[in-house]
Structures are given as structure tokens and as C-alpha cells.
Design goal:
The complex is a heterodimer of chains A (438) and B (318). Chain A is of the alpha/beta class and 438 residues long. Helix content of chain A is 27%, strand content 19%. In chain A, helix 3 (172-179) runs parallel beside helix 5. The relative contact order of chain A is 0.15. The model of chain A has no long low-confidence stretch (mean pLDDT 95). Chain B has a single domain, classed as Ammonium transporter fold. Chain B is 59% helix and 0% strand. In chain B, helix 1 (22-32) packs antiparallel against helix 10 (190-202), helix 2 packs across helix 3 (47-69) and helix 2 runs antiparallel to helix 10 (190-202). The chains are: A alpha/beta (438), B mainly alpha (318). The interface between A and B is large, with 70 and 41 residues.
């Protein structure tokens, strides 16, 4: 089989130690912390107030505008309060609905299998996805219904289901593809119908032979979908890199995949879309990977949105060793946490507990211009020059001549740098300074 | 949040880094210099070892003094980069160069070639070649007094390039390749240099584009002149085997700090340097042009880096 790939990239140690660990549903916690902002775009507007009784799957936050997403109660119970609470993405506390579970876990009335789910029209599918509050589960959490509704002049011909999962440690998508291939393929088919595409590719990195086998078997029933095995290289699963690898098309600078007729959805998102269309099930739970040498119960867990990290760690056997860093997501692009008292949100693909085995603190050394950052940059940028330009405040030059805003912050440069220069930190800072000056 | 709760370290992603660091790169490069250095000591005698040691000691010492004066961590002098400069300087000098001379050269290389620009990573010119050029200007006689290798019976001790240029004597290819000839301490044996180069390539410390475009240009351009007038100009194989070309191609034009950062820029850089070698060897007063060719492209390098950029993904193709 041909293997597809892109230019640049790195090979960090993959450490997919949990790829043979079955997805396990964690018991329901007593209290859930559901932030009203779990997605790219505006936070949802709360629909409940303190003391309200809610059912599992009931909408408790309404999308505010087009680029926003609905929020639902992860279980049945009572709204204890709506207050500012720590959040795994934002450094400051954000409005969060705190729900006391009643333990019955009773579904809201709208839940149940729809007879016509296989025949649902494009408008119905998009509406189902919107109602269910589905966002990209890979980490960026962009509202999915927005991606499914491109303006009419942008014709989507190719849908790519992203099962590359190129981040080290993470195996949630891998497991979903092994355990629920049909559901994922059904999701892919529904996405295809929603945008009227001609082709659907499932992209999987070649370090997941089990997932590849499982999808290949399931594909016998889906002749409208093709499997594409991609090379194991970070960041193979980055949207622009994956599109380039599979179709040869380059998303124009500052543009979106739809500008080249492509739509990329994560494997987990595809299953969520399938569940939303078939059962009217809102996005109230997700699969995540718990890993890192500091985690006792390394594995893949199905958890409700709003479950505290600390609860997950405790229920899986606690920690081992001296935890140095806690990361939400993968080690390359994930967000480090100062505390375990943050809730799982829709974009939480993993929780990594790192000890000194994984985490090394380095004092940056002067750049020796070895240019490894240049050869690994999947966007064709010059990270060492960008760092200097940002450092000396020459942001306009960095933007106009060196593509500061094209950086996807994948971290390949900072990973490979023998001087341990934090390129991504400088580049993020440069971008935020540019925004501030506007 | 509980008052006694422990807070964890936060930092911007990525949270993994490669095991490699600058120190490893520099010290491995020092290892790669062993074959040509050892061969030099073998054919020219133990005095050559003394020369190398003196050069390294004064390089590192100068580095330490400057780091201290600049309020930096003086222990950085052991990062290996000053050791490389010291060894390289010794390898480019005649095997019987005076010790006091090389001490001055090493101090000059580190101070004026590296530290005044801001230390490691900041210098425009290859420090070892700055030192070499300084010694050539300051001590022209010592810098061009060659000795024959042990057991080789020649009366002049002239280098193959000088023999060709001034005495019209050609040295056999086999001697050029193995290195049993007169020349700078570490430049004579092509095979020893290639072994070191293979190690650097294997470690991915050097980009093959640099030596290939450099040596290739010398070969092709030298070949063109040879075809025009084979009696007047040496053949292209002689060009690439004789003198310091191989030493320069493997260890100097490939210097990370002073070479371009893009693959295309490196090819252009190597070609320009190759042209300089031929122009100097064939038409200038010196028999050898490697040192000046690299110092000259060092000067052009910032311009190449500004002009040559990779295509950004999604850039509108013109």
C-alpha cells in the first residue's frame, strides 16, 4: 500500500503504551463541572439557574452566535451553582455550571433511536450536529456544524476522517477505530452526505496496525469510503499536512480546507456525529487517554464532560512517582495544567501525568543556526528567524516576510532544537502582540 | 482551590524535547576531527600533536576570559566549540609552525573571530579561518614553510599545489588521496578527511549539499579550464584532491553558524565558494584558495539567507 506523507516533521518517541487497553467507562462522579466555554468561538449562554433540576442530555447552554456550540448536562441532577471555575485551556476561571448528580442518570425526552436516521437529509444532519453541540474532538474544539456548512460557493469534494493521531501517547482514536469501526464509518458517510462530497478518506498512521485491520474489515460494507495509510510522522494529523499528504492540495495561506474542496473531521468526532444523528445524543461524554509514567491506571476511558481530572486519576489508581507536569492533550501541542482540579471538556483527548522521566527542564543555549528547525517545519517557515524577529519586536516583518501567522504551533522546531529554544512560546507571544496592536 | 494544594509546572508546548544538545553536537564534531588530526601526527611527527594541544588550550582559555568579561557563564568554554576552532586552526597550518605563533592565532580566532560578535552562534566568519588568515598576514614566512612527511625524500617540501603552480610538477593521485605529501597538518589525506566527513553525515551534523556543491563546482569549473588548455591548467581530479579543498569542504564550509539555513541557499553558497577557489588557484598570487573562498562566502551568507526562503505551504505559486 502506498504511504502518504508531507514535507518536514519529527519522530518523537511515540509511547503508544495504551493502544491495547480497551475503552473503559468510568463510574459517574457526584459533581460535574461543565464550563460554558469548551469550544472555539463565543461561550454558550446559560439556560439554567441555581436549583434547577436537569436531565441527562438536556441543553443547559445555548450557542451564542454562529461560531459557538450548545452545552448539555452530562447526567441528571440538580444545578448546584453557576460560578467561575478553573478551566484546562484558559488560565483564568470561567463561568461553569456545577451539577450535583442524582445517580439515576435519566435521559432527556429527546433521546432515542430515530427510525429514519440512515435517510436523514443534509439539513437534518447539520441541525442534529448543531443541536448536539458537537465540536472537533481532536483538541481544537471547533464547532462541527460550522465546518459542515460552508458557503455555497465553496464546493467540498473530499472528506477526510482524521485517524492519524500523530501525538505521542494518545490512543483514544486508535481504540475507537479498533472497537467501533462501523460507527465511525457511518459518521463518515453522514458527513459526506451533509456536504455533498464525492470522496471520503480514512487516514490512519501506519503505527496502528490493529486499527487499520479493523477499519479494513468494516470497509467491506462501505464501498463509498477509502482507507489511506499515512506515514507515522509528527504532525501527520495536522489538517493542512494531512490534506497535502492525501490530495496533494495546499490550503492557501490564511485560508481554510474548504478553499481546496476538503473537509477534515477527527475520528472521534465522526462517531459523535453518528450518535447525534442516530440517537439524538448530545456530546456529553468522550474517550480520552490517561497515560505518562506518573499514571497508575494507564488506559482509555469513556468519561462524562465535566469530570474533574483529579477524579479520573483517583478512580484509576492514583499517581506513581513525583508528578512534574500534567498535560491536557498530547505532549507536543497539549496544554500543561497547574492543578488537577480542572474538568474534562469536549476537547480533552488525553490526560498525561509526566514525571522527571519525561520532563526535562533545559536552560536555552544560544542558537547555533543548525537549521534543524527549518528542515522539520511542516509549514516551510524559518523558526530561528521568527524567534529573533519577535524577540526584537519586528512583528510586521515577521508577519509579512516570514509568515509568522502561518505557524501551526505544532512544536516540531522546539522539539528538535539542540539549544532547547522555546520557539513556540516566542511565536505565540509574537502572534498575541500582533493582535494586541491591531 | 484548597490552600495547601500543590501546583504543577506550566509551560508552553511542546512538552518533549530531543536528547541531543549543543554540547553533544560539538564534542561529536571533535571526534570527527580525529582521523585527519591523527594522520597528520602520524606523518609529520609528535610536534604536530603539541601544535594541536597548544591551539586548543589557547582557544578555550581565550573563550573563558571573554565569557567572564562579558558576564556570561565561563563554563560555556567547555561546550566543545572552542575546541573545534582550536583543532581546525592547527589542521590548516604547516606542521612545523611555531607554538607561540599558534597560541597567538588561536587567541585571535576566538576573540576577533567569535567573541566580539557575541559568542557562539553570532559570528559571521568561521573563527578558525579568521585565525588562519591573521597568521598568514602576520607571519607570512612561518605560514608557508612546509615540511615533507617523515621518510619522504624530497628536497623542497613544497605542497602539491605550489609544485604545480611554481615548479610545474604534478603529484600522483594516489599520494594525494592517501596523504603522504607535504601540506598543512590535517589537509593532506583525503581518505582521513572523508572518514571524518562520513561520521558527520551519519550524525546529520552536516548537509551533503554544502560539500557537494562546493567540490562539484571546483571539479566542473576546473575541468572546463583544463579542457580549454590542459598544458596550462591542472585536471579537475587534481583540483579536488590537492590542497585544503577536502578539509574545507567537510569541516569549514559546513560550519552551521556561518552557512546558510536553507537547502537552496546552501547550494548557491557552495557554488559561489567553488568559483572563488578556482579563480584564486588559477589567476591569483596564492597557490591555494580554499581559505579565502570560505571567508568570502561567509561574507555573502547573510544576503543569501535574506534572499532565499523556502516556500511556505499554501503560498500562491508564481
Amino acid at each position: 500500500m502506498n504511504k502518504f506523507t508531507f514535507r518536514g516533521g519529527v519522530h518523537p518517541p511515540y509511547n503508544k503504551i495504551t493502544s491495547n487497553k480497551k475503552i473503559e467507562a468510568l463510574p459517574l462522579p457526584e459533581v460535574l463541572y461543565v464550563p460554558l466555554s469548551q469550544h472555539a468561538g463565543k461561550p454558550a449562554k446559560p439556560l439554567v439557574k441555581r436549583g434547577d433540576v436537569v436531565k441527562k442530555g438536556q441543553k443547559i447552554g445555548e450557542a451564542d452566535g454562529f461560531i459557538s456550540a450548545n452545552i448539555h448536562a452530562p447526567t441528571s441532577g440538580k444545578v448546584k451553582s453557576i460560578m467561575e471555575h478553573p478551566h484546562p485551556v484558559f488560565l483564568e476561571n470561567v463561568p461553569t455550571v456545577i451539577i450535583e448528580a442524582d445517580g439515576d442518570d435519566t435521559w432527556f425526552d429527546g433521546y432515542g433511536e430515530r427510525k429514519d436516521w440512515q435517510e436523514r437529509t443534509r439539513e437534518e444532519i447539520i441541525n442534529d450536529v448543531k443541536e448536539a453541540g458537537i465540536v472537533g474532538l481532536g483538541g481544537a474544539a471547533f464547532p462541527s456544524h460550522v465546518k459542515l456548512s460552508p458557503p455555497p460557493e465553496k464546493k467540498i469534494d473530499t472528506v477526510i476522517i482524521n485517524g492519524a493521531e500523530c501525538e505521542p501517547y494518545l490512543t483514544a482514536d486508535d481504540r475507537l477505530m479498533q472497537e467501533r469501526p462501523e460507527d465511525m464509518l457511518w459518521g463518515a458517510r453522514l458527513i459526506k452526505r451533509a456536504v455533498g462530497a464525492e470522496k471520503v478518506y480514512i487516514a490512519i498512521e501506519d503505527n496502528k496496525p490493529e486499527a487499520i485491520n479493523s477499519i479494513q474489515d468494516a470497509l467491506r460494507e462501505f464501498d463509498d469510503i477509502e482507507l489511506r495509510v499515512v506515514k507515522t510522522k509528527y504532525p501527520e494529523g495536522a489538517e493542512k499536512q494531512l490534506i497535502k499528504a492525501l490530495t496533494g492540495r495546499e490550503v492557501p495561506r490564511g485560508g481554510l480546507p474548504m478553499d481546496v474542496g476538503c473537509l477534515v473531521h477527527n475520528a472521534g468526532t465522526s462517531i459523535a456525529i453518528y450518535e447525534a444523528v442516530r440517537f439524538g445524543k448530545p456530546l456529553i461524554e468522550r474517550v480520552l487517554t490517561l497515560s505518562g509514567s506518573g499514571a497508575q491506571g494507564k488506559g482509555n476511558y469513556l468519561v462524562r464532560i465535566g469530570t474533574q481530572f483529579s477524579y479520573i486519576v483517583e478512580k484509576t489508581g492514583g499517581t506513581s512517582g513525583d508528578i512534574k507536569k500534567i498535560i491536557m492533550g498530547g505532549p507536543m501541542m497539549g496544554i500543561s495544567q497547574y492543578s488537577l482540579d480542572v474538568p474534562v471538556i469536549k476537547g480533552t483527548s488525553g490526560i498525561l501525568l509526566f514525571t522527571s522521566k519525561e520532563v526535562k527542564f533545559h536552560e536555552p543555549y544560544p542558537c547555533i543556526r543548525c537549521s534543524r528547525c527549518v528542515s522539520v517545519c511542516p509549514m516551510g517557515l524559518l523558526p530561528l528567524i521568527l524567534v529573533d524577529l519577535v524577540k526584537y519586536g519586528r512583528l510586521e516583518i515577521a508577519k509579512e516576510q516570514y509568515g509568522l501567522l502561518d505557524c501551526i504551533e505544532c512544536g516540531s522546531c522546539a522539539y528538535i532544537c539542540p539549544s532547547h529554544i522555546p520557539h513556540v512560546q516566542w511565536i505565540k507571544y509574537g502572534k498575541s502582540e500582533l493582535r494586541r496592536k491591531k | 482551590m484548597k490552600a495547601n494544594e500543590r501546583l504543577f509546572t506550566i509551560s508552553v508546548s511542546p512538552h518533549l524535547t530531543t536528547e541531543e544538545d549543543v554540547k553533544k553536537i560539538m564534542w561529536n564534531t571533535v571526534i570527527s576531527l580525529i582521523p585527519p588530526a591523527a594522520f597528520g601526527i602520524y606523518i609529520f611527527g609528535l610536534y604536530s600533536l603539541l601544535l594541536i594541544i597548544t591551539s586548543v588550550v589557547f582557544s578555550v582559555l581565550t573563550e573563558a576570559v571573554f565569557l567572564k568579561a562579558r558576564n556570561k557563564n565561563w563554563r560555556q568554554c567547555f561546550d566543545g566549540s572552542a575546541v573545534i576552532t582550536g583543532i581546525l586552526l592547527a589542521l590548516t597550518l604547516p606542521p612545523k609552525f611555531p607554538l607561540w605563533g599558534i597560541a597567538i592565532g588561536a587567541a585571535f580566532a576566538i576573540s576577533f573571530g567569535k567573541q566580539i560578535f557575541g559568542g557562539i552562534g553570532q559570528n559571521i566568519f568561521n573563527p578558525a579561518l579568521v585565525g588562519r588568515a591573521f597568521l598568514m598576514a602576520a607571519f607570512p614566512v612561518e605560514s608557508t614553510t612546509w615540511t615533507a612527511p617523515k621518510g619522504v625524500d624530497t628536497f623542497t617540501g613544497a605542497t602539491p599545489l605550489a609544485n604545480w603552480k611554481f615548479n610545474h610538477i604534478m603529484t600522483p593521485y594516489k599520494d594525494l588521496f592517501l596523504g603522504n605529501i607535504s601540506g598543512s597538518l590535517g589537509e593532506t589525506s583525503v581518505i582521513a578527511i572523508l572518514i571524518g566527513g562520513a561520521f558527520l553525515l551519519y550524525k546529520r551534523y552536516i548537509d551533503w549539499r554544502l560539500p557537494l556543491s562546493y567540490v562539484g563546482t571546483v571539479f566542473i569549473l576546473g575541468g572546463i579550464f583544463w579542457l580549454i588548455n590542459p598544458h596550462k591548467y591542472p585536471d579537475p581530479l587534481f583540483h579536488i584532491l590537492a590542497g585544503g579543498l577536502m578539509l574545507g569542504a567537510v569541516y569549514m564550509i559546513t560550519d552551521m553558524v556561518t552557512s546558510p539555513i536553507t537547502p537552496r541557499g546552501r547550494v548557491i553558497y557552495g557554488i559561489i565558494a567553488g568559483v572563488f577557489v578556482i579563480l584564486i588557484r588559477l589567476f591569483a598570487g596564492y597557490p591555494e584558495g580554499v581559505m579565502f573562498s570560505i571567508l568570502l562566502v561567509n561574507m555573502i551568507r547573510p544576503w543569501i539567507d535574506r534572499a532565499i526562503k523556502p516556500n511556505i505551504l499554501g503560498e500562491v505559486k508564481k
